[in-house]
Amino acid sequence: MGILRYNFRSEILGIHTNITVCYPSGLLTTGLGYRHPIFPDNKLHYEPGIKFQTVYVLHGGGEDDTIPYRYTRLEQYAEKNMVMLVSPSVNDSLYMNTTYGYRYFDYVTQELPIVVQSLFASAPGRENTFVVGMAMGGNGALGLGLMRPDLYEAVVDLSGGIGVTLDRVEYISSLNWDFPKVRQTLLGEKEFVDSEHDLRWFAEKNIADGVKLPKIFIGVGSDDFIRDRVHEDYVILNQLGYDVFYEEAEGMKHDFDMWDFYLNRALSTWLPLKRMPINPSKI
Question: What is the pTM of this model?
Fold first, then answer.
């Protein structure tokens, strides 16, 4: 794999921020005859202008853009499936626009794709764009998919529920969790129906408007403390008529053992990836 960390000034956030970009470069050859025989024999060549399908990987609470790569074998899974990864750093914003001014949802859905497709080999188009997240990032991925279904072909929510939810009653109760001031400061003291943080409103509106919906995959451990909340999001989506797949991992918890396993499952099985570079003539 090729991996880099890019620091730039976000116009929307008004600060310098980091993203980690990971390329499946190990299976590409220059064709100059220097490839070592231990590498697979293949015909995947570097070519000016080639692009890759892109999976946005969202980190969990208390983490940053590097953690998904440092705590799992995510690079290997991306290499195997010939896909590019992009991870933004969003602090503990829940991937939403906050009451204190930082508009992380707008940053991730509006500014970041422009930057990534301008500076990196990311293929444009909804059919080439996916989002996967863990914990707070899982809930963020679900939120992005429901609030901007035009951007993502498929969404993977792993152990989400940390943040906004389709269950309005549960959202209000979460304001009084062990760190109540966090959510109250981020999103406001109470949930307003039809507000920008009301996922149920977005989910229902998508159905009513007949918009093209992303395929949604949800995975959670049977022993995860957030399991019931994740399962309720699945139940609501299923009742509304979404194409949603749910899998509960017996005996697994809210940790990187679970997420490492399901990152592999997501990239290797769940997501409808081409698993090939995209020739510039076909873009």
Answer: 0.93
